[in-house]
């Protein structure tokens, strides 16, 4: 992990289909937050991890020990690629997941990348950037639930949804239309991305006690939402 004065953040491309619009979406995200990266008092390095480079990961955990039962400080997996993946993910302080929505869900390679590890993700903040016809809200909600199950820090509203709208067909062909980008800019998506990154950096600066308090408050808010939904049904 990075030194106290520097932060390493991985931006993870969840789509591996070809053609794909994902690299263009990631470029939009990185361009949007570049000013924040440059102006931050702490050195922040943003590195792209493309799951297309990790297609040899097993589709599910293998070996006698489940990832959560591995030694937290020195996990050893029964697969060379998973060991390499573990070292890669462990090197970062936080993550930005850029994911499309497939049938109201997240792509299988992203789920596999998450499930093959546990401690490498745990106790680190995550930000979700979803995209789809209407922004990928269901994929974002599902991913948020998965990350919480892996004990990641998603207690703040770190979700940005990017609707493709009328540019969906072009996106399916791997092209991000300028008109779509214009709509994102006009509706404040750049500002949302910057705010999300700033909140992530702020979370990384919290004490363990503050993080525990934040997680407790997040659980209470989630329970309150569920109770409200029950009451309205």
From TrEMBL:
GO terms for cellular component: cytosol. Pfam families: FMN_red (PF03358). Residues 208-233 are annotated as: Disordered. GO terms for molecular function: FMN binding; oxidoreductase activity. Residues 8-163 form the NADPH-dependent FMN reductase-like domain. Transmembrane segments: none annotated. SUPFAM superfamilies: Flavoproteins. InterPro entries: Flavoprotein-like_sf (IPR029039), FMN_Rdtase-like_dom (IPR005025), NAD(P)H-dep_reductase (IPR050712). This is NADPH-dependent FMN reductase-like domain-containing protein. The lineage of its organism: Eukaryota, Fungi, Dikarya, Ascomycota, Pezizomycotina.
């Amino acid at each position: 992990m990075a030194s106290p004065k520097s932060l390493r953040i991985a931006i993870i491309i969840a789509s591996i289909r070809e053609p794909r619009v994902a690299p263009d979406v990631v470029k939009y995200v990185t361009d949007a937050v570049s000013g924040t990266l440059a102006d931050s008092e702490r050195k922040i390095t943003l590195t792209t991890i493309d799951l297309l480079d990790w297609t040899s990961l097993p589709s599910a955990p293998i070996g006698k020990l489940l990832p959560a039962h591995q030694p937290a400080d020195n996990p050893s997996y029964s697969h060379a690629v998973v060991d390499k993946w573990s070292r890669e993910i462990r090197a970062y302080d936080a993550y930005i997941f850029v994911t499309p929505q497939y049938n109201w869900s997240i792509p299988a390679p992203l789920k596999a990348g998450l499930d093959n590890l546990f401690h490498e993700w745990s106790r680190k903040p995550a930000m979700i950037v979803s995209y789809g016809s209407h922004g990928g809200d269901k994929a974002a909600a599902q991913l948020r639930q998965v990350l919480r199950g892996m004990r990641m820090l998603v207690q703040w509203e770190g979700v940005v949804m990017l609707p493709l709208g009328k540019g969906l067909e072009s996106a399916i062909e791997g092209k991000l239309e300028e008109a779509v980008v214009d709509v994102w800019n006009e509706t404040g998506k750049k500002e949302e991305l910057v705010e999300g990154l700033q909140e992530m950096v702020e979370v990384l600066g919290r004490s363990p006690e503050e993080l525990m308090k934040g997680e407790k408050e997040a659980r209470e808010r989630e329970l309150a939402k569920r109770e409200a939904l029950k009451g309205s049904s």
